Amino acid sequence: LVEEYEMRSQHANSEDAETMAEHRQARQRLRLVAIDAGRAKLREHTEQVESSTHLALLEELDLQEQQIRNALGEEATGESTS
Question: Where are any strands of DSSP class E within the chain?
Answer without folding.
Answer: none
